[in-house]
């Protein structure tokens, strides 16, 4: 390509290199024309002529070729001698970029063109390309197919590389459009420069190397791919899975064995293949001996055999006979096993021939043109042929060929996979198809097991930005990065995700909670003070306490006539012991699953027994106090505190508590409730107090009694007598109050079942306190120091 910076007149464009593949296509055209010319059915009595121009597969040289076509032969030696160009139609161009240029040049002359390889979606714009036809499907279908392929194999992180031409530009645009809304993201987009430039290519390769996208979709043709792949091979980049566009998926240049380690496994969509009988033989007839001074044949020989068949000396290449046979290894030229592009050329020639045939069959008076006229057979205008082209339908080997309203053909692709052949070279293996005429979703048919992936692997390669999030976690998008790149964050407790790649964790329903893995909701643990170790311990303590009390009771009863039992009213002592037994036992109600009944019983039984117990102690204190403050014998006080009165006091004090409890039970009794607030992962079964006022009243009343008892006992503590009970009562009340004062904060701050345990424990502790303080000294004397158990001793001085 000349430098077009407009500062000097550019030198003429030069073509370099020789493309045996394109030469084969040209030969196919010749074959088709010759077939038609020999045919007795198609265009009998007419001979098609043609001219082949080299566009060098560049827009600029394509333009030069198009001008040459138009300027063609001069008027004088025009066989029609009409002054019109004999040119009726053009077959070409291959690349879309060139086709665009050629189409623009041909348009003013209304010369139709049929392209066999220009798949660019841009040609659907009929306003811009009214005379353009093609026998290759529009790339819109190919990008759709590629997008489906990427989605199908979970290639969610892909790189895009394209050549610098309309084909690449539109294809990438189309692919991006197709990928919108799918799970596939594009990691990078790179463009191989039109004028190949190694520095730029290395930059692209660097991007490829550093990216985690292992799948690279390339919209490019072998022209720019060849140098690019050569550089790729030197860079020692591994693990790239190529997805090839139709332009290079069937390029035989890359089938050489040296490419296999780098390109093996490439997958892509190839255009439909067909059968051209006799093509192989026809290609073989082309040799320098047959076409002595055809420069293209000479160049072909140079390209295939690396020798110069023209006997002229002065060429740097060794000379050869020109009779060398074309061999397998010359597949770039001779590969005719499944012609695809060549088949398109063939179809294009036939399309023109059939249209011309139809044009010539026109009956005067029923023609398609003005006043039902027909075209004149000796003066056919290109636009007249175009009319017939639009309508032509014909059959080639069972395949129907026609053009739709946009001049396009039927979308059908083979999925090709590059696998290792016998000789270590690359073979194109058909592993599926894409049929665009099928309903959406059913177009793609892949035989996955037949695919060989890059690196000679049968496992589908991974190309993802972030590996998927396992159940139990959710995706968290990274700011400023494509949606395919995300972090996985574990679900919060109480939430789960049971699918991979969940976007959100869902809340567990009521009464359910997430498990450790956060993948399933499990029923919340129901917690209450059960007969587990804690429950059993409390039960044992309470039973032991009750038994002890009963034992003391027995001892007292046995020694009921001794002085120490009889002093200060033995009946009261028995009352107290009875009450204490109940106190010990009532802690049992706190253990076990709370039920309607147990909840009601808990606080009421406890408060009433405690009230009763303390009332008895209170009674006793009163007796002690009264006995000693009665300074003179026969004082009235003792009369007022006879056994009857004592019992009345006890009864009244207890009844007050009973009344409070009754009111509580009637108004708003305690009930079992499920507490889900305290600890969200558990359901705590507890007894709701119903009315907390009542609860604190009940406790307060016991407290009040205890305090009163304490104060009275305190006053009496220094009264004379060797055995002054007031001392022990003071002490026991101190312990009692200490226990219940510390109970309050402990109860309030204990979670769930521990609140019950605390209460139960407080009951036991205070009961033990009372039992020991009140009865241990007496038991000691009764059992171990019976000699002190006399009235004299007790009275002291
Ligand atoms: N389908 C391609 C196109 O429409 C095929 C092609 C042929 C091509 N020759 C090319 C692509 C040269 C790029 C360059 O363009």
UniProtKB/TrEMBL annotation:
Q: Out of the domains of life, which is the source?
A: Eukaryota
CDD domains (UniProt xref): 7tmC_V2R_pheromone, PBP1_CaSR
A Pfam family cross-referenced in the UniProt record is: 7tm_3
The record ties this protein, via SUPFAM superfamilies, to: Periplasmic binding protein-like I (SSF53822)
Keywords (A to Z) from UniProt: Cell membrane, G-protein coupled receptor, Glycoprotein, Membrane, Receptor, Signal, Transducer, Transmembrane, Transmembrane helix
Instruction: Tell me the InterPro entries matching this sequence.
Output: ANF_lig-bd_rcpt, GPCR_3, GPCR_3_9-Cys_dom, GPCR_3_9-Cys_sf, GPCR_3_C, GPCR_3_Ca_sens_rcpt-rel, GPCR_3_CS, GPCR_3_vmron_rcpt_2
Q: Name one GO cellular component term.
A: plasma membrane
Q: Where would you find the membrane-spanning parts of this chain? A: 534-558, 570-592, 604-628, 648-666, 693-716, 728-748, 760-784
Extract the GO molecular function terms from the UniProt entry. G protein-coupled receptor activity
**Membrane topology designation:** Multi-pass membrane protein
Location comes to:
Cell membrane
Q: G-protein coupled receptors family 3 profile domain: which residues?
A: 534-797
Instruction: Note the PANTHER family from the entry.
Output: CALCIUM-SENSING RECEPTOR-RELATED, EXTRACELLULAR CALCIUM-SENSING RECEPTOR ISOFORM X2-RELATED
What's this protein's family per the entry? Belongs to the G-protein coupled receptor 3 family.
Question: What is the name of this protein?
Answer: G-protein coupled receptors family 3 profile domain-containing protein
Q: What is the lineage of its organism?
A: Eukaryota, Metazoa, Chordata, Craniata, Vertebrata
